[in-house]
Amino acid sequence: MLTNICLAVPFEYLPPAPISFCRCNFDWQRIGTESFQQYAVQQPAQALGWSKKRQAEYLAGRYCAIHALGALPDASARFPTTQLEIQLEIQLEIQLGIQLGIQKDRSAHWPTGTVGSISHSHSRAIAIAARNKDYWGIGVDCETLLSDLSATEIAPWVLHRNDLNCKTEQPLRYGLLITLIFSAKESLFKALSPSDKNITGFGDFSASCFVSKVSANKVFLERDSRHKSIHESRPQRNTQFELAYIIDQQQIITLALLPR
Questions:
Q1: CB neighbours of 226 closer than 8 A, spacing ≥ 6?
Q2: 122 and 35 co-located in one domain
Q3: What is the percent of the chain where pLDDT is above 70?
Q4: Which residues of 122-145 are buried (b: 16+ CB within 10 A; e: fewer)?
Q5: Can you give the pTM of this predicted structure?
Q6: Weakest mean pLDDT among 5-14, 81-90, 177-186
Q7: pLDDT in tens, 168-198
Q8: Cα atoms in the Cβ-side hemisphere of radius 13 Å centred on 128
Q9: In terms of domains, do 123 and 146 share one?
Q10: Which residues face 248 on adjacent strands?
Q11: Residue 170: is it exposed, middle or buried by C-beta count within 10 angstroms (0-12/13-18/19+)?
């Protein structure tokens, strides 16, 4: 059911501290009663009432999360040294039975000492993980590129009034720009919301920040000063955020890293 499993971080820049990444493709039509056991992912009780597609999304996302956790270097090491060492760490995580529970808001409950994020879109699932001594928040999001018509339909829900005034290095198709704005805000929302209780939902969050600039591989978001701080609980009180993004196989993947 799971194919094209990859541990390589797809973004070109070097992060300020170690992060690990796992992605895969999945075929929801091939999920069966044995799939959770096959991939060493604990099946939650509520999954019995889910559709096959929802079960496949959950399984693929948790599988990627477990492997991203396993690929984290030891706390005493800066970065993993060889692919063999990464694979051995992953196998150890699986043998120890590392699993991610479900919190009340339906987000993943990451093990103590770690932070992470999961996303899925159509047939792809991705997850990132890091140690919370290095980052107080991380977020990843994957979105299939929208057509111009579909982008027009979701724009009122996603856009801040300044979003379409953002600077771009080259003209972007409307559907691509809206997809990128949406995905970047999703990643930043995932990175900020676990530690900022002032963030009550994505809709309000989306209205409180806007994209100011888009380069070839980065997107820059700013906080609207008219809104209550989305970051006031942190000592840094950032008002600007720099995210990475790539376009891969008709999908956009965005990454938000908030180092300590």
A1: none
A2: yes
A3: 85
A4: ebbbbbbbbbbebbbbbbbbbbeb
A5: 0.86
A6: 81-90
A7: 999 999 999 999 999 999 999 999 988 887 7
A8: 27
A9: no
A10: 251
A11: exposed
CA-based nearest residue to 98, from 64, 141, 128 = 64
CA separation for the pair 75, 100 (Å, rounded): 20
Identify the domain boundary among 86, 106, 133: 133
Q: What share of the chain is helix, strand, coil (3-state, %, to 5)?
A: 35, 30, 40
What is the C-alpha separation between 67 and 88, in angstroms, rounded? 11
**Per-residue pLDDT tens for 107-125?**
888 999 999 999 999 899 9
The domain boundary, picked from 133, 163, 197, lies at: 133
What is the C-alpha separation between 144 and 119, in angstroms, rounded?
12
Residues paired with 144 in a beta bridge: 251
**Over 90: is that where the pLDDT of 79 sits?**
no
- The whole-angstrom separation of Cα 2 and Cα 221 is 34
User: How confident is the model over 247-252, as a mean pLDDT?
Assistant: 92
Helix (H) or strand (E) holding 258: strand 251-259
How far apart CA 257 and CA 74 sit, in angstroms, is 20
Q: Tell me the two tokens of residue 67.
A: 């492997």
Return the CATH number at 27: 3.90.470
Q: Quickly list DSSP for 34-82.
A: THHHHTT-PPPGGGGGS-HHHHHHHHHHHHHHHHHHHTSPPTT-SS---
Number of domains the chain contains:
2
CA atoms in the 13 A half-sphere facing the CB of 85: 8
Which residue range is the domain that position 182 belongs to?
141-259
